[in-house]
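Tutorial handout. Part one gives the primary structure; part two gives the three-dimensional structure as tokens.
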Amino acid sequence: MIPVSVLTGFLGSGKTTLLARLLRSPQLARTAVIINEFGEVGLDHDLIETSEESFVELQTGCLCCTIRGDLMLTLEDLLARRDAGSVAPFERIVIETSGLADPAPILHALMGDAEISKRLTLAGVVTTVDAVNGLATLARQPESIKQVAVADRLIVTKTDLADRADVDGLITRLAAINSSATVLKASFGEVDPQRLFDMGLAVAAAKRVDVQAWLGVEAQARDHAVARDHSAHDAEISCFAILRAAPIRAVTLTLLLEILAEHCGADLLRLKGIVNVAESPDRPAVIHGVQHVFHPPAWLERWPSADRRSRLVFITRGIPQAWVEALLAAVEAEVCEVSAKPA
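Part two.
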């Protein structure tokens, strides 16, 4: 499985500068990068071979291509070239979105396409936020709030141009929108490339100790008061965690996810969780969803810690935590009632 990372961020957030530096990093050799236009990134002096206008090999071993109308067609073409040996055998893919793009459709495609999902796995979302203008952008542009809300990594850029107080204020605001994401600071476009890709469901499932960090439950609990104070200013975006000490039946979990997908799809921006499934108490299920699309559960070999509570982290728009709590309780009660009926 080849991991795919989505790089997003609002116009002027420093995404292009970050991407250009990443493409020159030896640590990102054997990476295929799909970008919107080459003109957005200064790569001319790095180009050594051009087989077609849209496929370019770089001296660092990276491969760049442009989106050919449909992202899935581009990915299929890229994989076909890899299989045929006409391009270097890249080990990861980075997809850069436009500054105004909603990343959700890309995530849906990667998680929902049956053929693509056999070869590619979503590693996570990296969102850049401008330290100088980030607060103003979040106040004016709903798209920027959604880009922050779905992120696994938040990169605060241009920290060399901003006052420390402004950077701290922006980080506090980001925690109010999405406290489960890890925040990194980039100065002059520099950030450790490895920190951008040690994320996502695949990594969390492979490294059991990282599940807690991926969920971000501790950060969510720590920043709960901050999130509550800012919720009115963030277009009703909220981040909350639901914990259950008692195991959850598999049918309860299935019904809950189906109801959420059907009735809350557009407003369920992100859902991550580790679940103690009653039928499999020694192997927790890790779940991941974006709006109405859910990744198939990943089953861990064992619990990452002594804490065996189910933890569901929600990032929503206009969906109260109390409503989700009541829904889960209602589904649990319904399942118990049906199970209690004589056959």
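Part three, for discussion. The chain has 13 helices and 14 strands. The longest strand covers residues 120-130.
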